[in-house]
Amino acid sequence: MKIFLDTANLDTIRMYNDMGLVDGITTNPSLLAKEGGDPQKTMEEISRIIKGDVSLEVVSTDYDGMMEEGRQLRKYGDNVIVKCPMTGEGLKACKSLTAEGIPVNITLVFSPNQALLAAKAGAKYVSPFIGRLDDIGHTGMDLIKEIKQIFGNYDFKTQILVASIRHPQHVVDAGKIGADVVTVPAVVLGKMLNHTLTDKGLKAFLDDWEKLKSESPSVEV
Ligand code: G3P
């Protein structure tokens, strides 16, 4: 399973990339707005830092606008995936951009049928938002199971990119289902990385080592 970071924060991206944990990045206008500054420069910089796929979202809602923006965004790098919304115009742009060799991530997917249509339009990725489904009382992860089954039945090449992840258990569940990618906010990646028993265990090892050192002056480290 690939792990993407769902952020436009350059420091966070650099930090986790240096640990070798970032297979790709997803951004959206809200994440860019949170960081402030020049969004174009930020998107360009993310595409430069990360070698894997970087999803950059269009803000046009009409076909011509999405095509123009998509071509512009792709100039930031060969790793740029153009993120288009799950609308009729978005699917039309998906088909055309894909035909031009520009891969597309269809975002804001909330039903298996929307995922099916995105796959038929040739999307490289489909992004079901599971946390937002949980928020309104559904079980978002059920959507991932359904999409996985449908794509498997017909051997669609579109990858399931689980988005709107709220906690580490979402990642575990997505992995059990066999989703291709999870895109996680930095706070969730931090929780995946850390464990209180790891901290406690490490402290005990180091304390014991110090004790041993004080009793055996020949130990140098
Ligand atoms: O990439 C977009 C998606 O992950 C949004 O998440 O937390 O705004 O529902 P959220």
UniProtKB/TrEMBL annotation:
Mitochondrion as UniProt keyword: no
Keyword Transferase appears in the UniProt entry: yes
Active-site residues (renumbered): K83 (schiff-base intermediate with substrate)
EC number of the protein: 2.2.1.2
Main location: cytoplasm
GO MF annotation terms: aldehyde-lyase activity; transaldolase activity
One Pfam family it belongs to: TAL_FSA
Compartments where found: Cytoplasm
Name of the top EC class for this enzyme: transferase
InterPro entries: Aldolase_TIM (IPR013785), TAL/FSA (IPR001585), Transaldolase_3B (IPR022999), Transaldolase_3B/F6P_aldolase (IPR004731), Transaldolase_AS (IPR018225), TSA/FSA_arc/bac (IPR033919)
GO cellular component: cytoplasm
Pathway annotation: Carbohydrate degradation; pentose phosphate pathway; D-glyceraldehyde 3-phosphate and beta-D-fructose 6-phosphate from D-ribose 5-phosphate and D-xylulose 5-phosphate (non-oxidative stage): step 2/3
Keywords: Cytoplasm, Pentose shunt, Schiff base, Transferase
GO biological process: carbohydrate metabolic process; pentose-phosphate shunt
Catalytic activity: D-sedoheptulose 7-phosphate + D-glyceraldehyde 3-phosphate = D-erythrose 4-phosphate + beta-D-fructose 6-phosphate
Function (record text): Transaldolase is important for the balance of metabolites in the pentose-phosphate pathway.
Family the entry assigns: Belongs to the transaldolase family. Type 3B subfamily.
Name of the protein: Probable transaldolase
Organism the protein comes from: Marine Group I thaumarchaeote
